[in-house]
Amino acid sequence: MLFDTHAHLNATQFSEDVEQVIERARAEGVSHIVVVGFDRPTIQRAMELAEKYPFIYAAVGWHPVDAIHMTDEDLVMIERLAAHPKVVALGEMGLDYYWDQSPKDVQKEVFRKQIRLAKKVKLPIIIHNRDATADIVDILREERAEEVGGVMHCFSGSIEVARQCMDMNFYISFGGPVTFKNAKKPKEVAKEIPLDRLLIETDCPYLTPHPFRGKRNEPSYVKYIAEAIAELKGLSFEEVAQKTSDNAKRLFGIV
User: For residues 103 and 101, what is the distance between their CA atoms, to the nearest angstrom?
Assistant: First the structure.
């Protein structure tokens, strides 16, 4: 039993063979997938996949890179979709200071609006953070995001930051980088995170784990992340798979 908590099967990279990709994931023991929408087209596609497959769920939100394009109507759409039984989280949302597409003040405002909406609709949030850790943590605190909690998606920060996030009711999620031979920090942090606060994800089609690095990522590869964490923690693969699945079900309210 494996739970891929962050996948982009709604990306154009899967437009030709998404059914076969999903079949491979099931064959490798993936029992649940959350497909994350982050703008109008990807939200629509995430909803289509969630409605078609019983084991696929959707998260809906607005990516910080595209924050400048979000309208009040988009926020209304996200709120409306939040009532759908297959929508389990809002996001991905957050801050991205790497790509210079949306001004920082716009990103922050869009981030705050989505946190407030999540509290209104009582759904957890999925956080995207790139080169913006201090501001992310400050906004989560100021907006009292611990009321809904969520997941620090594809975490790449320090153990100190991870502890701050866990104190605010967030899970720490690891993807492909934890399998990279030269990725010292993710390995050190993953080793320290308590098992009951851990999640695993692929972020496919990006961040493909070893030994497929450089190729398109897909949900079936989430097993390599579970294997890497099991080795780091001195646990069995089965224990990591079961516990991270249980954590994800608890966070997303999946029975």
Answer: 7
Q: What confidence tens digit (pLDDT) does each residue in 104-149 have?
A: 999 999 999 999 999 999 999 999 999 999 999 999 999 999 999 9
Strands 150-152 and 170-174, by their bridges, are parallel
Instruction: Count CB neighbours of 145 within 10 A.
Output: 26
pLDDT over threshold 90, residue 95: yes
* Cα–Cα dist 224/151, whole Å: 20
CA distance linking residue 145 with residue 255, whole number of Å? 24
E strand spans, the chain: 2-7, 30-37, 56-60, 87-96, 125-130, 150-152, 170-174, 198-200
- The amino acid at 236: S
For residue 131, the Cα-to-chain-centroid distance in whole angstroms is 17
Residue 163 in tokens: 């502890």
Dihedral of CA atoms 125, 133, 42, 186 in degrees, nearest 10, equals -90
Work out the average pLDDT over 25-44: 98
> DSSP string of 163-210?
HHHHHTTEEEEE-GGGG-TT-HHHHHHHHHS-GGGEEE---TTSSPPT
CA distance 45 to 187: 33
User: 204's torsion region: left (phi>0), alpha (psi -120 to 50) or beta?
Assistant: beta
pLDDT given at position 17: 98
Which letter does DSSP use for residue 158 in this model? -
Asked if residue 198 lies in contact with residue 190, where contact means CB atoms within 8 angstroms, the answer is: yes
Return the H-helix or E-strand segment holding 221. none
